[in-house]
Amino acid sequence: MTPARNYTLSTSLQKNVEIIKEIFLNDDTLIHRPFENQRNPDLKCCIFYIDGMIDANIINKNIIVPITRNPVLKAEGNIINYLQYQIITSNEIQKTNDTNQLVTAIISGDTVLFVEGFPEALIINTKGWKTRSITEPVSERVLRGSREGFTESIIMNLSMIRRKIQTPDLKFEFLVLGNQTQTKACICYIDGIVNKKILTELYQRLENFNLDGALGINYIQECIKDHPLSPFKTTGNTERPDIVAAKLLEGRIALILDGTPVAMTVPYLFLEYFQSNEDYYLNFYFASIGRLLRILGFIITTSVPAIYLALVTFHQELIPTPLILSISAARQDVPFPSILELIILLTTFEILREAGTRIPTYIGQALSIVGALVLGQAAVQARFVSAPIVIVVALTGITGLMVPSLSGVAILSRASLLLLSALLGLYGYTFGVTAWLIHLFRIHSFGVPFTLDLTSFHLQDLKDTAIRAPWWYMKYRPKQITFNRRRIKSD
Amino acid sequence: MLITMLLLSGCWNYREIDKLAIVSGLAIDKNAQGDQFLLTAEIIDLKETMTQSKIASRKIEAKGESIFDAMRNMIKISAKKLYWSHAKAIVVSKDVATQDIVSIVDWISRDHEARITLNLFVSKEQTASELLFQQSVTTDIRSFEMEDMLMGNRSLSKAPNVKVYEFMNDLSEEGISGILPALGITMNMDEKTAELSGTAVFKKEKFIGFLDEEDSKFLLFVKDKIKGGVYTIKVEEESPNEIITLEIFKNKTKITPVYNNDILSIMISTTTEVAIEEQNTTNNYIDEEGRKKLISIAEKTLEQDVENTIKKVQQDFGSDIFGFGRIVKAEMPSLWKTMDKKWDTIFKDLEVHVNSEIKIKNSSLTSAPLKVGD
């Protein structure tokens, strides 16, 4: 497609038609519909639109009918103004002579109207393609709470957020990302609560976004991360409008992208991995227990293989005597050394899990876990592996599913800690954990330290970390994300 | 470079669990001539029969000129290297205890696998190894059972619960000699089995004799190591054959040296909390009056028993296992300086006064004796 900026519109309708057709050469979905007024056939117009992007009813009823059937239209005077303001019934009309704008409008589903004798055209809003209906997102289910999830249409998503926060301070700013895809994106924040520094930083990074396309949130996320090589993500993903609304209320910024139901929230802290919106809808005792379980699950899934290996092969004196007798009995006549058994079984578990996610039914996940355990049982019977290893691997795998957003990090840290403890025993494990902790405490998310509030000595900051304090007790918003800290109005 | 460093260290110290022979206990004897050590180790032997595993133990014998030498010689018989970190009990015979207890204790504290919290026993029989060969009653592994016996001794208090590090402390300190629990063989339902009974008394580093069970209990009273146990008293003045059994809950002993007119004497005061556990008469010792009587009789009996035990130790053994010397050294260091060379003789004639106080906490579940009707 030749750049549209090389063209200028002319007053001749024929010329303009040729220009548009040349720009959209070889694009057969472009429809050209010329028409004239019934009474005065000198009033010649034509419209251009892309088939499939428009709602045909709007074009028929609101553009073609008013112009063709109007008995008093004459081809004299400033017809185009007359059409724009008094004839065409549409909620959005723009007049322009910029071919770039015209082309963008046609591509995004608007209709462009040319009138004989004018070097300008009208852009009329006729968007109407089919979108998915609002359903509950598959990956983020709750027991008690709204079951709405974002869809692929940006306007619908924004409307969902607007319905949850009905204050004029909620601002939506549009921008376009991606050189070829020209995807519409929207930055939302609540004016007065948000930290302006983070906002300007976000704008700056998005300006440097130079890829061809922004098809999903991850394209953008990887380009604007503070630490691109870190396995931890420093921007959050979510598919639910209530989560986005809650984060906006805390002073965070959300980025909604057209064409994907996933929204990005900035900044993102380590703690947010373990928070689920269910925590806020349930009783705070249960919520705190749930959150503690998740944190414990993450620690178990990364550490248990490494610690088991270190104890059984280097530090047998640390194991209580009855346990060491059982383990030793189970390991008689097993051909492989412990480290190899662990690697084989962990890899097999991951393979089964990955295969399970590709089975296109809901039981796929359960099937794969059961399959893994049965496989393990058969392997134990055949004396390939020892029974304690199967238990360790099953525990690791199941706790790894507790925090799905951390699964990438979990696999990486599990493997690195396992390798280190195979080489150096508990020393290796300690070195590995220290290295991970140093990394974790070092990274930032848009200037906010990643582990904010984890080590805070102020009681107010700790209220939403490993436990969730009741709502009437959480009076302040997180400190470095916003300066406007009071959540509850004081009298 | 970091990666090469990591990989080069390889799997230094990596030991697979099934290549280890886990030792649970050891018996140390000397041969007839007295120049070679005979070691018998009890090794956990794991047989797996499809899905069930049966834990049994096997014994391995070896000879050597020193203890460590004999231990390494065991590899000649067992294919695997012995692993000592889970060993729980070491039994020594009387001869070894008389001559070589120091080398044993030295090995235990020096070796990086053996723990100094393991239990050391002295065998009352001819050899120590026959104790390892006895039929066990509750578990399959003799040494674990020996350790369990010592743990259960808390409620019995008939033998001292002495671990190697405590024994080491006693050995090296001035003014106290060590003691160790003693094991003997008895018949249980026509089967011979090992039994924990009494104390082995040491003088400096030599074993000199045994104390029987009752005396061991009063020894524990003096050392303030009573954590439970049973005390039976006979109320003989009123009615013969009347025995009240008291269960001991707590005991606190305080030892104070008193120096008057150049004569050193020791004051021991014990405070014991008991409960009336069993009585074989229907006399009421639970109400106010009966309790007072019971308490006074019990206190007198206890004082008597403790003093008798101390006298026996003074005369028969002459070894200060109570730690009086240590207490004098701690509380009157200048006096100790004049006495420490002659402590052995001073100890033999030391005057000891015991003052007991007994509190009856409750009488268990019933608050009145059983009534016997017509």
Detailed description of the structure:
The complex is a heterodimer of chains A (491) and B (374). Chain A is an alpha+beta fold and 491 residues long. Chain A folds into three domains: 4-124, no CATH class; 154-268, no CATH class; 280-445, no CATH class. Chain A has 15 helices and twelve strands. In chain A, strands 1-2-4-5-3 form a five-stranded antiparallel β-sheet, sandwiched between helices. In chain A, helix 10 packs antiparallel against helix 14 (387-400). The longest helix of chain A is centred in the last third of the chain and has 36 residues, at 407-442. The model of chain A has no long low-confidence stretch (mean pLDDT 83). Chain B is an alpha/beta fold and 374 residues long. Chain B has helices at 2-8, 67-73, 94-99, 101-110, 129-132, 142-152, 164-172, 213-222, 288-317, 324-331, 333-339, 343-348, and strands spanning 20-30, 37-49, 52-64, 81-83, 89-92, 119-123, 179-188, 191-203, 206-211, 229-234, 243-260, 263-279, 351-362. Chain B has two domains: 17-211; 213-366, Nutrient germinant receptor protein C, domain 3 (GMP Synthetase, Chain A, domain 3), CATH 3.30.300. In chain B, strands 1, 2, 3, 4, 5, 6, 7, 8 and 9 form a nine-stranded mixed β-sheet that branches. Chain B is globular. The A-B interface holds A 312-314, 316-317, 321, 324-334, 337-338, 381, 420, 422-425 and B 6-7, 9-11, 13-18, 20, 22, 24, 44, 46, 48, 51, 53, 55, 83, 85-86, 88, 113, 115, 144.
Oligomer: heterodimer
Describe the sheet with the most strands of chain A. Answer: 5 strands, antiparallel
Mean pLDDT of chain A: 83
Task: Work out the helix count of chain A.
Answer: 15
Rg result of chain A: 30 Å
Question: How many domains in all of chain A?
Answer: 3
Most residues in contact, chain pair and counts: A-B, 25 and 27 residues
Sequence stretches where pLDDT stays below 50 over 5 or more residues of chain A: none
